[in-house]
Design a protein that fits this description.
By secondary structure, this protein is mainly beta. Helices cover 9% and strands 20% of the residues.
Length: 108
């Protein structure tokens, strides 16, 4: 697969057909390591630079007015005005890395 060239329609697309979910985690995947909750996942067959987008939330897939069938967050405006209480009720993290090694820590 080649990289999209800047200033082209391909470069400006807001979708990527090659993107896929390679792993989902849930509460049973967390292990305690040195007093921290940790998930370890190994990406196999890494033989070139790769890009990973990691996302986490405290909500299940298909949570009414919060997530869709794939677990994607929905717009907060679906259930009224946004405020601090609402924001902290549905915590979402997004991280983007370009290597094959990382650690995730669950904050209590």
């Amino acid at each position: 697969m080649r990289k999209a060239v800047p200033e082209t329609a391909e470069y400006s697309k807001d979708t990527n057909e090659t993107t896929k979910v390679i792993k989902r985690f849930n509460d049973s995947d967390w292990k305690v390591v040195d007093g921290r909750n940790v998930i370890t996942y190994t990406v196999k067959n890494v033989n070139k630079d790769m890009y990973f987008r990691l996302r986490g939330t405290n909500l299940a897939v298909n949570t009414l007015n919060e997530t869709d069938a794939d677990g994607n967050p929905l717009a907060d405006k679906l259930v009224g005005d946004n405020n601090a209480t609402k924001a902290y009720a549905d915590v979402c993290i997004i991280s983007q890395i370009q290597n094959s090694f990382c650690h995730f820590y669950k904050l209590d």
